[in-house]
Design brief:
The protein is mainly α. The chain has two helices and no strands. It is elongated.
């Protein structure tokens, strides 16, 4: 669980750095990086939730 939290913190940091880069330079490539980071973070959260759901379903059976 600690590794997952660290990965989510790194994705959040990447998102913040990307948005700060866009705010400073106004280069749209920073927004593309921020979008990729956001999609990756959301995919990771969805994957974690699915694993948690399967774990709960296995415990019930």
């Amino acid at each position: 669980m600690l590794g997952i939290r660290l990965l989510l913190i790194l994705i959040g940091g990447f998102l913040i750095v990307s948005l700060l880069g866009y705010a400073i330079s106004r280069d749209p490539r920073w927004l593309r990086f921020a979008g990729l980071g956001l999609k990756g973070g959301l995919a990771l959260i969805l994957l974690i939730m699915l694993v948690y759901l399967v774990e709960r379903l296995v415990m019930v059976i």
